[in-house]
Specification:
38% helix, six-stranded parallel sheet, single chain, alpha/beta
Length: 234
């Protein structure tokens, strides 16, 4: 069965390079592309979905903002399972930071040119999103270079993407949706994820202890095990 992977905001599918699937499952990447001027999230998602073969069973996996994309795909597609990694699926899980950025209309006025290219602010922004903290000596030895997984798209892409993710409101929950989340994720705080599941009493959460927002690169073995549990046993 084919498993389609969509990366996070500003990331290439190279971020999934350590992810391995159980035998019999094929990993397929869907990369970001530049949105057209009048693209809504819905029209953008439909263009991304053109790469998915719906003539046979498939699974969707979305990392961070990619998790929002796969949930939007569920509005017109029927995957066997939808798996979110370090993302959000309901109003309880929306980070307080996103609510603040939405209220001040951050994407409308902030100069997005600082988030692109090889500028220092661009590097600092991506590190704050994916690494969260100053890396330890061990992390520095094993650390992937940001250029290996940062997408090389212009400021329009970042402005559009940030506007979409901070304004996204979950609607009806997808069928057969699962989450993999790290306890040290500072972008989508684990406390909110835990509260969501405690409230709804749903069992479909794989917890990665000490996993940060970059868990797909820092703790791939644990993520692989979580994916295996969901794909084969759920």
């Amino acid at each position: 069965m084919k498993v389609y992977f969509i990366p996070g905001l500003g990331a290439k599918c190279q971020c999934f390079k350590f992810i391995k699937l159980p035998e019999g499952f094929e990993k397929i990447y869907i990369e970001w592309h530049l949105p057209e001027k009048n693209d809504s999230l819905s029209t953008y998602v439909r263009k991304m979905s053109e790469k998915i073969d719906q003539s046979e069973p498939f699974i969707l996996v979305g990392y961070s903002f990619g998790g929002v994309i796969v949930q939007e795909m569920n509005k017109f597609m029927k995957p066997e399972k939808t798996i979110l990694i370090a993302s959000m699926k309901d109003k309880i899980q929306i980070p307080e930071l996103f609510k603040i950025l939405k209220k001040i209309k951050f994407a409308k006025w902030f100069p997005m040119k600082f988030f692109t290219g090889k500028k220092m602010l661009s590097y600092a922004f991506m590190r704050s999103v994916y690494f969260n903290t100053i890396p330890s000596k061990k992390q520095k030895r094993n650390q992937i270079k940001l250029d290996e997984f940062m997408v090389d798209l212009n400021s329009d892409y970042f402005k559009w993407s940030i506007d979409q993710i901070i304004n996204w409101l979950p609607e009806k929950e997808c069928e057969k949706i699962y989450q993999i989340h790290g306890t040290n994720d500072l972008i989508f705080p684990f406390k909110k994820i835990h509260t969501s599941y405690a409230t709804t009493q749903q069992p479909h959460l794989e917890i990665i202890e000490k996993g940060s927002h970059l868990l797909v690169l820092e703790l791939p073995k644990k993520v692989n095990k979580a994916l295996e549990n969901i794909i084969l046993n759920e």
